[in-house]
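sry for the spam today, last one i promise. struct tokens for design, 441 residues
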């Protein structure tokens, strides 16, 4: 018999040993308590049964919404009365079309849809940057070259057609009742500016959304907009002020037990706070971004904890995000204020060293010694100087695939594999792509 999600969570946290993925996409339903169920998907859907119908937290993504509903309906046939969006990322709102379609098919009223007032603005921004969002998500998760996507970027909407709009918006806090159950919705800044975490006092339960994801906090994504580490930590401390006994994130395993929950939240909050403090201290001393990235680090022992491993985002990216939040986009290097075009600089360097092929071979030598940061600079300049050279692109593809194997975070792996695939395509080689968007592993 499979280990229950709460038992699995407890074992991972209490032992510090992880022998399976905490972030699972099984589309299977687990009952967490009387009238409370969780469907593990991308993202999860948490459901609470009331006398007026079901309250669902998030709808999962467009590819998984129907499968979530199928699992849910084996547990309860009750109408979905209310749908709470924890935030506006597509893997949380994109499955709502399946809920709407089911309601129409059954002749039911669609659910009330509740969320923060910034959420519609987020979806508007996604619609304005439709093609860009497809490109960066493919690069982050699938490793496909940008040119492969150009023909389809404008054909389909990044925000799926049929996504349910909010019917109830709030600013800082909203208390509502569904049947006999009270919900306290709290606005949080963190991964997004439209986040909602919900306290359900009757069940002593928190729906946390993405404020806790069983990975290092996703507070530095290199391709996404600003994130807010101190506000993120503050939201966790607000959660700690409740008498919570059941804590349910939208990715990863639910956690039970007041002391266990508080311990996890304290460690994540203090890690973010200390990282901000260290970066600001360095900034105040006049350090450049490059100096800070090289000198500031998170205690490696913390990164071994089951819920803080840097397998999705990573501290270096968070450091860069903190710099952007407090210091702007310029990194402090004078030549980077108004830099030369990449190809002009690359041609000048290649002329000095004897050609792009010489530079590419030198890049390969650095990579063979494990000096991938230097190797990546050199090979990018070689390919910028000789964009039609198959030999250069073959070396570039090999360097970035080798570098990918040395990385822990999905974001770095995806971007480096995308670079390799760009060069494979330029060299006329087959393109490899391993979809990892739905695993968070």
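last one done:
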């Amino acid at each position: 018999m499979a280990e229950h999600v709460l038992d699995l969570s407890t074992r991972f946290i209490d032992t510090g040993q992880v022998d399976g993925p905490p972030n699972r996409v099984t589309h299977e339903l687990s009952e967490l308590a009387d009238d409370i169920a969780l469907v593990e998907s991308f993202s999860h859907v948490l459901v609470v049964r009331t006398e007026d119908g079901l309250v669902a937290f998030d709808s999962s993504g467009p590819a998984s919404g129907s499968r979530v509903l199928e699992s849910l309906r084996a547990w309860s046939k009750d109408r979905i009365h209310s749908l709470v969006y924890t935030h506006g990322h597509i893997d949380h709102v994109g499955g709502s079309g399946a809920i709407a379609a089911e309601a129409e098919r059954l002749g039911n009223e669609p659910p009330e849809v509740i969320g923060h007032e910034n959420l519609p603005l987020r979806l508007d921004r996604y619609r304005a940057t439709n093609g860009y969002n497809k490109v960066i998500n493919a690069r982050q998760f699938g490793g496909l070259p940008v040119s492969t996507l150009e023909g389809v970027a404008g054909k389909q909407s990044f925000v799926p057609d049929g996504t349910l709009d909010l019917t109830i918006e709030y600013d800082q806090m909203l208390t509502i009742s569904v049947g006999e159950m009270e919900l306290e919705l709290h606005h949080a800044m963190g991964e997004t500016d439209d986040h909602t975490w919900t306290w359900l006092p009757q069940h002593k339960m928190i729906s946390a959304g993405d404020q806790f994801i069983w990975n290092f906090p996703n507070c530095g994504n290199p391709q996404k907009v600003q994130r807010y580490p101190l506000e993120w930590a503050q939201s966790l401390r607000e959660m700690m002020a409740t008498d919570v006994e059941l804590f349910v994130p939208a990715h990863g395993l639910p956690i039970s037990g007041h002391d266990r929950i508080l311990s996890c939240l304290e460690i994540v909050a203090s890690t973010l706070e200390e990282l901000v403090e260290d970066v600001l201290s360095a900034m105040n001393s006049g350090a450049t971004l490059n100096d800070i990235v090289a000198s500031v680090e998170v205690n490696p022992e913390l990164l071994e904890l089951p819920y803080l491993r840097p397998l999705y985002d990573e501290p270096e990216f968070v450091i860069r995000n903190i710099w952007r939040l407090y210091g702007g986009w310029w990194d402090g290097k004078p030549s980077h204020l108004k830099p030369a075009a990449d190809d002009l600089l690359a041609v000048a360097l290649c002329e000095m060293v004897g050609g792009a092929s010489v530079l590419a071979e030198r890049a390969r030598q650095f990579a063979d010694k494990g000096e991938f940061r230097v190797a990546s600079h050199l090979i990018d300049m070689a390919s910028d100087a000789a964009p039609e050279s198959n030999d250069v692109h073959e070396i570039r593809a090999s360097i970035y695939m080798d570098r990918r194997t040395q990385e822990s975070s999905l974001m770095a792996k995806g971007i480096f594999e995308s670079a390799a695939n760009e060069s494979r395509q330029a060299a006329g080689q087959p393109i490899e792509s391993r979809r990892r968007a739905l695993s968070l592993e």
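The chain is about 45% helix and 15% strand. ok im logging off now
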